[in-house]
Design a protein that fits this description.
28% of the residues lie in helices and 24% in strands. The protein is an alpha+beta fold. Helix 1 crosses helix 6 (208-215). The longest helix is centred in the first third of the chain and has 20 residues, at 2-21. Residues 17-28 and 173-212 have low confidence and may be disordered.
Length: 216
């Protein structure tokens, strides 16, 4: 009976050890998204003349389009494809040129478009959406929450432009940087010598004798 118990215990330990060595997938993108809930500094190049095309043309913040342009640039690290026009044009410019996917559902990093305003989605809590924004000849920066975009402003709501989708479309990353390139074990005997190799370098070598000594 003692021998049977030890074999069962050895099998459990072996199984647990193998699980701890297998990669754990984690979704990239959303888990790394950092919402902007405070005013960008004047030295932030995404919002000033260094990188912001609206600012370069004399239409910098406070301005909703200059802010949305800079915020998307900040999120994605790439210059937004929508580079001109006032807020009311963004929705139609995007559709006409097929720059980004668009729709009626909010997503992190999406551009919310109204008939005279654009803003960027920073967080979504069930049906509560938080946006960051700037206003032409008004507030330099602020955040706003709403549950119904149609009543957020006295304007027509067009929908969301998913300009940050490229950030959230990354492949899964793993909890360690090395990949398992070879894994060999005796197919029928769980108590035989088992080797786990990462990038062809053995990192674990265990057999029934080693585990027996550990649990005896």
């Amino acid at each position: 009976m003692n021998k049977i118990f030890k074999r069962i215990l050895l099998g459990i330990i072996t199984f647990i050890m193998m699980l701890t060595l297998l990669p754990t997938a984690a979704l990239a993108g959303e888990s790394d998204f950092e919402p902007r809930l405070s005013t960008p500094s004047s030295g932030n190049s995404y919002y000033n003349r260094s990188l912001n095309i609206y600012s370069k043309q004399g239409y910098g913040m406070p301005n909703c389009t200059a802010y949305a342009y800079g915020r998307i640039y900040e999120i994605t690290g790439e210059a937004p494809l929508i580079k001109s026009g006032n807020a009311g044009n963004w929705w139609f410019t995007n559709k006409r040129n097929d720059y980004y996917e668009y729709g009626s559902e909010p997503k992190l990093g999406a551009i919310a478009c109204w008939s005279r305003h654009v803003a960027v989605v920073e967080s979504i809590d069930e049906d509560i959406v938080t946006i960051s924004e700037s206003h032409w000849r008004g507030k330099y920066f602020n955040t706003k929450t709403f549950s119904n975009p149609n009543s957020a402003y006295r304007q027509t709501f067009y929908g969301y432009i998913y300009a940050s989708d490229s950030v959230f479309a990354e492949e899964p990353v793993y909890s360690y940087t090395q990949e398992i390139s070879e894994f060999t074990e005796a197919p029928c005997n769980p108590f035989s010598e088992t080797a786990l190799t990462i990038e062809n370098e053995p990192v674990l070598l265990m057999n029934s004798l080693m585990i027996t000594n550990a649990v005896s």
